[in-house]
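Researcher: For the record, we're logging two predictions in this thread. I'll number them. Prediction 1 follows.
Model: Prediction 1, sequence and structure:
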Amino acid sequence: MPREFQRGHKTRISDLTTGTDLYVGVQISGPGLTFDISCFGLDADERLSDDRYFVFFNQPKTPEESVQLLGAQAGDTESFRVTLDRIPSQIRRLSFTATLDGAGQMSQIAPGYLRIVAGGEEVARYSFDGSEFSTERAVMLGDFYFKDVWRFAAVGQGFDGGLDALLRNFGGEVAEEEAPAAAPQPQSGAAPGFAPPAFGAPAAPAPAPVPQQPQPAPQGFAPPPAPPVHAAPTIVAPMTPPGGVHVPPPPAPTAYGQPGQPGQQAPYGQPPQQTYGQPGAPSAPPPPGYGQPQAPQGPTPPPGYGQPTPPPGYGQPTPPPGYGQQPAFGQVPGQQSYGVPQGAPQAGAGVAAALQQFKETPTGQRWTQQTRKLIRVDLGVGGQPVLARQGSMVLYQGKVDFSYKGAGFAGRIVGNATGQEMQLMRCTGQGQVFLAEDSTMLHPIELQGDGICVSAENVLAFDESLQYEVRRIEGHGIPGGALFTMQFTGTGTIVVKTHGTPVVLPVTPTTFADCNAVVAWSAAAQVVVSSQVRMRRNAYPGDTGESVNLQFRAAPGNFIVVQPYEV
C-alpha cells in the first residue's frame, strides 16, 4: 500500500525504501491539453548551473545517466529512472515539473499523480487535480532533495508564466527557437525491472541500450546567464574609425580617439609640432602601426603608440574613467573615450539595479528565509494554518485571514504560572505572509517526527500541525524549585529567533549553559538545574552572576543552541 502525500508533505527516501534505484511516474492529462514533463537537476542554491542536468524530451538523460527519461509506460504519461547513488555531489535537488504546450491552464487538468516505485512496488503517491491550481501554466510537482539524506517533497507549486517563468525561477532563460524541436523518440519495450508491471502485463527486462546519434542541442533552452559585468556589451576597439572617417593628414590631427587608444593624436603635453608622420613631410600616410603589423619607421612614435603593450586603462583591470571616477590625465572632463565600454558607467545604476539584491526569493517551498531576519510562509503549500506571534506580520500577499488564537482558561493559568505563555495569531487562507520581530535572527527548523525544547520567548511561528506543551525542568537551590520551557513534537516547521548568531554544541556529560542564554535543545536530552549557591559564599559580599546553570546529559547526537545574549 503506497504512502499517500498531500501538497507540502515531506519525508526521507529511506523511510519509503532502502533502495536507491527508483522509478518516478507522472500521470497528467486534460481535455485538449498537451504537456511537457521534465526534470531539473539543481545545485545547492536551487539553480540550473549545468544545463546537462535538464532532462526533457530532447535531452533524455544526464551525463552519468543518474536520471533517465523513459517515456510513457505502465499507465504513466511520462516516467523517469533515478539512481540516487549516481547523482554527482554538485546536484542537490531534482525537481519534476509539468508545463503546458499550447493554450490552457492547470485548473483544467483531470486528476493525476506523481508516484515513486522501488523494487517493482509503489511506495509513495502524490495525487492532485485542477482544483489545486488556477491560472498556472507550469507546476513543480515533486522534488528529491538532499538534506543530510535524500528526501522527497510533494510541492504542487505553479507559475502563470509557463516554461519561461519556470526556467527563470531556476536561474535559466529561454532562447528563441531557430527550428522546430525534434520529435521525441518512441520508447520501446516494457517497463524497467524496478517499475511495476503495466496493469497486469508480465514485467520484462529493460531493453538493451541502443547506440544514440549525437543529440542536437536543446532547442529553446540556454544555460543560466553569467553575472552581468556591464549594463551593455563590451565594445572592442575597431581597426578603422567609426563611420568610415579617415585620419586627416598632419599637422592638424582630428579629435578622433582619446589618449591611450590606437590612431589618436599625441598625448596631452606633447609638443604640438610633433605629428604622426615624418617631420616636414608634405603629406602623411596613415599613422605607422595603425592597422598594420610592422612598427613605424623614422622618429620614435609617441609613448604607447603602436607598441604591443596595451594603452593604460585599455583591457586592464583598472576601470575606465567613468561615472564616479576622475577623468584620465589629458582627457576632457565629461567626454567619453573611444573604445571604452559605453555601458560601464551605468553598471549598477538605477533604482531597479540598486534594489535587485533585495528582491523576493521564490523557492516553491512552504517556508522560505528571505533574509537572516525575515521569513516567508506560503499558506497555499501544505494547506494548513500557521500560528505566529501576535504582531509579527510585516507584509502579506493574497487572501490571508488573521484571527486570535486563544490558549483557553487552563492554558492561560499554566502560561502565567510558568512564564511560557505565547500570544499567538492564526494565519489561514491562500497567500504569502512575511514574518519578523525586533530585527532578531530567524532560524526555521524542520521536525520530522522528532522533538525540540524552546523557550516561549524564542518562538516566532510554527505549523499548526505541531504539538506543544509546557515542560518542567527540575532543580534545587533556585526560587520555585524548577524552570519551564516549551516542547514541540510532530512533523512541521518551527521558526526560532535569536539575538545574534547562535552556536550549536553537542551534549557531553560536562555541558553547562546559562539558563538566560540557552535557546533550544533536543527533546531527548536530560536537563538538570545546577546551582552553585553555598551558604559560606553568601557570607561574603559580591555575586558572580553565574549561580544558576543548566546541565545537559544525553546520548551522542543530541545538541543545545546558545545565543550570544542573555535575556
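Researcher: Logged. Prediction 2.
Model: Prediction 2, sequence and structure:
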Amino acid sequence: MGNNSIRKLLSVTMSMVMVCSLGTGCGKLLTRDGGVDPDSTSVSDATSKDSEANLSENKSIGSEEVPKADGTSDPSDNIPILLLHTDSDYAVNSKNNPAIHVNYNYLTLDKEYAQSHEALDKALESANEEILALEIECFDQAKEDLSGSDDYTFDANYYTFFRRADGKYLSFINECCTFGTFDFDYYSFIAHSYYVESGKEIELSDIVADEDAFYAILSEKVKAVVDDDLYIYMGEYSNKDAEDFVEEIKDSLEDGKCSFTLDPQGVTFWFDSNVFSPMCASATVLFCEDADNTIFNEEFSKDIPDEWVMQMPTGDRTYFDANGDGEENSVIASVTYGFNTGGEYEYLYVSGFHLAYEEDSKSYSPEYEGSAGDYNFFLYHKGDKNLIIEDHDEFGYGEMSCYILEDGRIKDGDGINAGLAYSWDNAEDSEDIAPVFLPVNMNKVLVIEEVGGEEGESIACYLSVSEDGKLTLTEIDEDGDEDSEEADNKGGKSDDKEVYGVRLSRGFLRADSL
C-alpha cells in the first residue's frame, strides 16, 4: 500500500496545482460558478466548436448517436447500462485568482434501461443526491474557511468507480479526496451495492453468514496493509493486534468511516484516512477463501461470474483471483506526473501511468510530453485470462490500450484511437459535458471514432476485447445495427479506410459553454 499513498499525495498535489492554473471571468470574492471551468478540458475552443458542428451534421452521433437500450450490452443480459456524469464547482478570490475547485462525478442508468428498472434508478438517484450534498457542503465550507484570505487554495475530488455491474448486482465506490490548509490530504469513501431487479440495498449481513470468521480474515489483511503504510512513512508498525483491528473495523463501519463494495469475486472494505493511520486503506476478502463454504451466503459465494469488468480507482490496489487457484493476486494502476519548471508558472502535469502486477511493473507515457488527460482503468476477467483496459485522451483525441496480465507479468496488447461514447440523450439540460457510457461489457463497448476526410465524419462503433488482448471495432449503422466491416487493432483499419479516433466523449462540451 506504500505506492497507494504515494499516488494519493501526488494526485492531491496535482489537483492543487491545477486549481492555481485555472482561468475565470469572475472577479467577486470566492464567487461560485458551476459547470465546466474554462481550462478543465484539453480540447481547444476551436476544436470543440468544430466537433460540435460535425456532430450536428452527422445523424449517427447526434441526438441519435447511440442505440439507447443497447449502449454496452444486449438487453437480454440485464446488465445495467451505466453512464458517468462529470462536473465541477470553482470559485475565485478578490484578486480573481482560482481559490476553490471541487470536481465530482456520479453514475446514472441509460434512460431506456431506467424505465424497466425504476427501483434501481431511484436507488442510484438517492446515492447521487448524497454525493452532491457532500460536494456542496464541502464547497461551502471551503468558501467560508478561505473568505478574506487570498493566500490559500483548496480542492476536492469526488470520483465514482463501479466495482460490479452484472445482471444481478450493481456496486460502486465514491472516493473523496480533499486538500487544503484546513483539511490536509484526507480520503473518505461512500459505497453502495444493489440488487439490480429490486433496487434494494445489499447489506453486509446479506452477504456474510459467519461474521466472526469473516472479520478474522479481514482484520489480518487490514493489519498487514496498515503495518506496511506505517513502516514506510513512520518507520514503525502498529501496536495493535488483529483482535483490536476487528473491533475498530466494526466501529468504523457503524460510524460511517468505512464502506464496503460487493466485487465480482469478494467483498472489499474501504477505510477513511485516520481510521488506522493518516493514510486510507482497503482490503478484500475473496469468496474463494471460504474453504468450508460457511463464511458467505451461497447466493453470493456460489454465483461468481466467469466474466466480469471492474473499474480500478487510480492508485488503489485491486485484489482478485486471477486464475481460479484460490490465491489472492493484486494489481495497481497509478497516474504519473512530471514537473514543468519553465515559463512563468511551475506546475505538475500528467506524464503517463504505471502498472504493477505481482512482481512486475511497467511505466507508459504518451508520444508527446504533457499531452495526456485523465486516465481510466478497467480490469477485465474472463476464465483464467485477465486484462487491463486503459482509456484516456491526448489533446482531446481518444486513446485506448490493452495490457495482458499473465504468469505474474504485464504484456502489451492492442491499442486503438477511440474514446468512450458520450450521450446527450442521457444528459440533463444543466450539463455542459455529455455523460459517457462505461464499459460494463467488454464484448460490446460503445466508442466514438472520427473517420478521416475533409469533413471529419464522426461515427459510433462497438469495441470488443478478446482474451488475448485484441481490440476490434465494428461500425454501427444509422439503425443501431452492426455493420459487417470491422476495424482491427493498432490504428483501426476498416477495410482499407483508416480510422482516426477522436475523443468526443469526456471533455466534449455544449457549444454555448465555450
